[in-house]
Amino acid sequence: MNTRSFLLSTAAAAAIALAGAAGASWAHDAHAAGLGTPEAPVDVIRAATDLPAAIGERGPETVRIGLETVEVTGRLSDGATYHYWTFNRKVPGPFVRVRVGDTVEVALENHEDSMAMHNVDFHAVTGLHGGGHATLAAPGETKGFTFKALNPGLYVYHCAVGPAAQHIANGMYGLILVEPEGGLPPVDREFYVMQGELYTFEPYGSSGQLTEDYDKLMNEMPEYYVFNGADQALTGDNALRAEVGETVRIYFGVGGPNKTSSFHVIGEIFDKVYNLGSMTGEPLPDVQTVLVPPGGAAAVDMKLEVPGEYLLVDHALSRAARGLVGKLVVEGPEQPDIFREGLEEQLGMVHQ
Ligand SMILES: [Cu+2]
Predict the structure, then answer these.
(1) With CB atoms counted within 10 Å of each terminal CB, which end of the chain scores lower, N or C?
(2) 26: buried, middle or exposed (CB in 10 Å: 19+, 13-18, 0-12)?
(3) Is 274 within a domain?
(4) Is 195 found in the same domain as 174?
(5) Centre of ligand 1 from the C-alpha of residue 95, in Å
(6) Based on the domain organization, do 42 and 129 belong to the same domain?
(7) What is the 3-state secondary structure (H, E, C) of 108-160?
(8) pLDDT above 90 covers what percent of the chain?
């Protein structure tokens, strides 16, 4: 039987090896164990390019997924940190990619320094609690289950330990793509983006180590809205990049826990939308904004015709001022027949 094993990042493996080699005292030193401190926070941002290659043409196999639940002090914004709960030390958790018919073995290890119980509920699972019951793990425990991927599609996974809203708000969500037989239509570039909310006691823009506010969580009044874990995470060095003429696909999910996204790219039109994460029907053509609920997903395809900087937003635009903005940078020659600034008479090109 061909078993694939992946997703435990080399950094995580190295940190575990380091903690083991150096003895128990190291494991309880947050900095040495790679758990971050307010002075030296972990970079929790999942790069939008951090996803496995397409599967495409292969038969069903047995695939092994390793997830580690880790509580870390991560960088939320310039000057602010937050105590995140993560899958594999990033937000969102790793992009899991399997094929319909695959037998998937899930091993979930809860880091020994965790304060909370954690588990994982995959929406791609047919079976009790999506695996949540089987993977309920105390700190230091490893639990697992096996499922057969019956339905292709793009699905959310998340920690479901109660109160689940708290575990999700703190960063415990990700996407699993179950490719249909033969794979998906190919594109030049694929990206992985998820939206979430953070409920801090301190107002948006505060400095220092920010703390979670359970009342704001219960009242659904977040201070921060984030793509891939942090304030304005997908800008600067983490901006999405592509070239004129390319086709890109964004696998977009909402961890939430509470807010529906009106996902939109300013200056572009989604040529195809795989609405609600359904990947097997005919995609919806020519869409401006796609509604994605918490615990839901969509894939959007765009042909990039014109160079420039395109903003990823939730068109509930107050959220852009609370950290929810990303950037898609498209490079290449100008295409004045499609778009140009100024009017012809201003440029001295008066019609005859
Ligand atoms: Cu959890």
Answers:
(1) C
(2) middle
(3) yes
(4) no
(5) 18
(6) yes
(7) EEECCCCCCCECCEECCCCCHHHHCCCCCECCCCEEEEEEECCCCEEEEEECC
(8) 88
Q: Are residues 171 and 264 in the same domain?
A: no
pLDDT of residue 78: 95
Domain final position from 149, 179, 209: 179
Q: Give the count of domains, the chain.
A: 2
Centre of ligand 1 to C-alpha 142, Å, is: 14
Q: Tell me the pTM.
A: 0.90
pLDDT value of residue 346: 72
Q: How far is the CA of 321 from the centre of ligand 1 (A)?
A: 28
Mean pLDDT of 203-222: 98
Neighbours of ion ligand 1 (CB under 5 A): 118, 159, 161, 167, 172
pLDDT in tens, 54-101: 999 999 999 999 999 999 999 999 999 999 999 999 999 999 999 999
Question: Is 351 domain-assigned?
Answer: no
CA of 122 relative to ligand 1 center, distance in Å = 13
The domain of 272 spans 189-331
* Residue 66 CA to ligand 1 centre (angstroms): 16
Residue 160 CA, ligand 1 centroid: distance in Å:
6
